[in-house]
């Protein structure tokens, strides 16, 4: 996954708020991932339009952090979701 | 502390056009006139969501045998559940698939009995089934429905594993479950006919390892090994009464689909008692919950919190004692009994005929 790639949640993968456990989750086939603050922050900007570069830019501004560090985290997080087929990535 | 359940398996009906000899349904199947109504299921879905269930698997039998399957999917989505349809595909016309999509179905899990009509129709006991399934699969792909293939593997088809994985890629599935038969339900009666050989199992593991690497980002492969060949038992249901709950066609609430094979436990029906009470307070759900009940061998084991002593129904099936350590465990004194079974069943040159599932 590189800076120009555009991630999106594929059909069959969606966010949900688990009221019983009081936590946001990502639901997919046979998968329930509890989302922490970082996960939510990244997924908030995964809209099928923004590239990894743009998402990292936005998050760096929001959290007043180095873009290069943010981008490494974003790629690691989304790369893991893509490996699990919970994320689509197009160049 | 008891956790809330995450997943529910709803056996909507035991009716099915197929007759697979490894069906996980119980030997004693429930007839149509005892099935729950649409409204009763909708109420169960609401209760499940309120209890903490996030994932609902609509299963059977063949869930599409229910005339109200579209209404049931809509009710599940209204309750806020991630809704998965576990189906043979038979009975899913393009029009019905469209209606399921409109009702909000999240995902389809399509069973495959084999990679060609000869073997698939033999296993399913249904002539023409393979061709119909392939039509349905094509249509699912055209609609862009998220798809998992559920390939149940055994002595007769494990040599086709490579082709089975290729089939999943060709059909555009994102995921495949390579599920080696677990010996409960009808599979237990057909164990000698279905048990793979050690060579087959070793080859399958190699193929799965290589394909997982090769297809990373394209296809997720979830492998359920044939546990008689394992050194340690599976963490069955991730622990009894810990994450999953199963509802039979007449509303009986079970910790797993084979739990009724355990004598001495009585299982309540959700038509008579709230699901919450059954989950938290019933004797059946608490019988093997947690680790306090475990035998000494498991209590002192470093794997105690990994596999929770394995599968209760397997201990029952093989040893006649549901409280024993799963005989798969190589630390168990009863492992020898399992090995003897394996040797005896696998060494038969000609596998016995199938006993097909029937209502």
Q: Can you summarize the main beta sheet of chain A?
A: 3 strands, antiparallel
Give the helix/strand class of chain B: alpha/beta
Say what oligomer this is.
heterodimer
The proportion of strand residues of chain A reads 15-25%
Residue stretches of chain A low in confidence (pLDDT < 50, at least 5 long) are: none
Number of helical segments with 4 or more residues of chain A: 3
- Most extensive protein-chain contact, per-chain counts: A-B, 19 and 25 residues
Shape of chain B: globular
Helix fraction of chain B by DSSP (H/I, runs of at least 4) = 25-40%
Give, in spatial order, the strands making up the sheet with the most strands of chain B: 7-6-5-4-3-2-1-8-9
Shape of chain A: globular
**Total beta-strand segments of chain A:** 5
**What order do the SSEs of chain B take from the amino end to the carboxyl end, as H and E?**
EHEHEHEHHEHEHHHEEEHHHHHH
List low-confidence stretches of chain B.
none
Keywords:
heterodimer, A: 91 residues, alpha+beta, two-stranded antiparallel sheet, 3 helices, B: 359 residues, alpha/beta, globular
């Amino acid at each position: 996954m590189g800076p120009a790639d555009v991630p999106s949640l594929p059909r069959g993968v969606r966010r949900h708020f688990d009221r019983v456990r009081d936590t946001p989750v990502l639901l997919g086939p046979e998968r329930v991932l509890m989302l922490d603050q970082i996960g939510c922050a990244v997924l908030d900007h995964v809209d099928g339009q923004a590239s990894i570069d743009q998402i990292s830019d936005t998050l760096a501004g929001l959290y007043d952090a180095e873009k290069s560090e943010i981008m490494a985290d974003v790629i690691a997080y989304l790369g893991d979701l893509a490996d699990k087929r919970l994320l689509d990535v197009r160049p | 502390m008891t956790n809330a359940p995450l997943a529910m398996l709803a056996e909507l009906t035991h009716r099915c056009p197929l007759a697979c000899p490894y069906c996980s349904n119980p030997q004693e199947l429930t007839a149509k006139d005892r099935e729950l109504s649409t409204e009763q299921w909708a109420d169960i879905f609401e209760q499940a969501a309120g209890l903490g269930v996030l994932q609902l698997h609509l299963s059977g039998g063949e869930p599409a045998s229910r005339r109200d399957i579209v209404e049931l999917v809509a009710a599940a989505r209204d309750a806020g559940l991630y809704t998965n349809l576990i189906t043979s595909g038979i009975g899913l016309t393009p029009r019905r698939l469209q209606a399921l999509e409109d009702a909000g179905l999240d995902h389809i899990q399509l069973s495959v009995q084999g990679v060609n009509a000869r073997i698939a129709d033999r296993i399913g006991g249904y002539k023409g089934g393979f061709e119909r399934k392939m039509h349905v699969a094509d249509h699912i792909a055209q609609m862009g429905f998220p798809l998992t293939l559920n390939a149940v593997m055994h002595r007769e088809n494990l040599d086709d594993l490579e082709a089975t994985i290729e089939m999943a890629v060709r059909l555009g599935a994102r995921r495949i479950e390579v599920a080696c038969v677990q010996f409960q339900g009808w599979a237990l009666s057909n164990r000698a006919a279905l048990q793979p050989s050690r060579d087959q199992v070793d080859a399958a593991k190699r193929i799965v390892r290589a394909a997982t690497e090769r297809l990373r980002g394209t296809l997720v492969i979830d492998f359920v090994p044939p546990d008689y060949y394992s050194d340690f038992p599976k963490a069955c249901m991730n622990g009894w009464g810990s994450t999953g709950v199963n509802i039979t066609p007449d509303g009986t609430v079970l910790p797993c689909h084979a739990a009724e094979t355990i004598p001495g436990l009585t299982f309540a029906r959700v038509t008579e008692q709230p699901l919450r009470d059954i989950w938290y307070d019933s004797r059946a759900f608490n019988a093997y919950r947690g680790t306090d009940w475990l035998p000494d061998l498991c209590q002192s084991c470093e794997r105690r919190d990994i596999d929770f002593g394995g599968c209760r129904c397997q201990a029952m099936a093989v040893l006649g004692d549901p409280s024993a350590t799963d005989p798969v465990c190589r630390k168990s004194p009863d492992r020898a009994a399992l090995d003897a079974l394996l040797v005896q069943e696998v060494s038969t040159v000609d596998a016995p005929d199938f006993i097909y599932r029937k209502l």
